[in-house]
Amino acid sequence: MQPDLRVLLFVFCIAYIFITALNFLFARIYYRIRGGRPARSRSAVFSEWLILGIAFVGFLCVLYGRYIEPYWPEVTRVELRSPKVRKETGKVRIVHISDMHSIARAGLEPRLPGIIAAEKPDLIVYTGDSVNDSGGLPVFRGLMKQLTAIAPVYATAGNWDLATEMLGHLYQDTTVNFLQGTNLKQDVRGTPVWVAGISQWHDDQVWPSTRGIPKTDFSIFLFHFPDGIGDAAGQRFDLYCAGHTHGGQVALPFYGALTTNSSYDKEYEAGLYRVKNTWLYVNRGIGMTKSAPRVRFLARPEITVIDVLPGS
Q1: SS3 for 284?
Q2: What three-state secondary structure class fits 142?
């Protein structure tokens, strides 16, 4: 089923339940005022209570998705192994965050530095979609300044950053390593780690980002979308970090994301995937877009801790 059709079907079902429940409530009020109600079958009474019950649970879910889950971050732990990590290094710890979508009123931004610092990362990677509007710039930059005090931060841009034309202002007065078709090397206790990043999938950014990276060294590729995995897996990258999907932002039990805005649809909606010799991690992000309902449901804000250990 096409993503747009799934969303329309979901919205239709929700609207039908709430409208029907309101109709039942108005009917109860009407007959209470009038003083009498026609006899109904047991199945009709059961159906009415069922719809009212579902609507009540749905209302609680809306409240949860608006006021609880967006402020309830989850730390996801992933363990990988690579022969490119030297035994004396022990492990390389990477913290991956994405999709802050900061606004003037801070959400999780004040809490993130404490959560991330407690993990003692060797490096922090950020995969774009930073602010929803200019009011979020001070909040986002304040966060980045605090994160660079914890560990080196490497970042790339998301589609929202490019669309709002605020890309040139995001990292002003910070020491964030912003990657656009470039790469940088960091030594982690004797293990060389390369981080490459692009903001748009153009050959003039993709292929230059691989230059100079030895095949014997561990490499990380940052791109906002998971859509580049088909090509990136054929390159020399060991780990591909992406965001964009928000894990659907609204997901259903036993089904997952309704939509991901990815050309792969639900194939890489969130989490860890192995494609050829490359690990792909799709982070659910922290914030919420301005263009969608500002709720999260079964798609908690995510801080990913990736430990890369020696071994095959």
Answers
A1: coil
A2: helix
Residue 155, H or E segment: strand 153-155
Domain boundaries, the chain: 3-67, 74-310
Instruction: Name residues whose C-beta falls within 8 Å of residue 107's C-beta, 6 or more positions apart in sequence.
Output: 70, 71, 286, 287
With a CB cutoff of 8 Å and minimum separation 6, the contacts of 35 are: none
Q: What is the mean pLDDT of each run of 10 residues along the chain (312 residues)?
A: 82 92 87 77 88 94 96 97 96 97 94 98 96 92 97 94 81 93 94 92 66 92 92 86 95 91 92 95 94 88 98 84
- C-alpha 114, offset from chain centre: 19
| C-alpha–C-alpha distance, residues 96 and 25, integer Å | 47
Q: Has this prediction a pTM greater than 0.85?
A: yes
Answer CATH for 74-310 from 2.60.40.3140, 3.60.21.10, 3.30.420.40, 3.40.33.10: 3.60.21.10
Give the CA diameter of the chain. 84
